[in-house]
Amino acid sequence: MKTNKSFTKRLKITRTGKIIARKPGQNHFNAKESSSTQMDGNRSQALNLSKKVSQRYIGTASQSKN
Questions:
Q1: pLDDT at position 1, please?
Q2: 3-state helix, strand and coil shares in percent for the chain, rounded to the nearest 5
């Protein structure tokens, strides 16, 4: 299958194979949010995808290099 390019641009795959993504919904309208909520939006989160799903959307880049 082909890799979904628009989806992969939003992700980062670490050396150990973890998939890291930004939390959604934190691009604008943050002025009224508390500082702790704003900082929570800056942090990344790990995605837990099954191997089947990760291979479908991310391709072979998510496979470990063992």
A1: 67
A2: 35, 15, 45
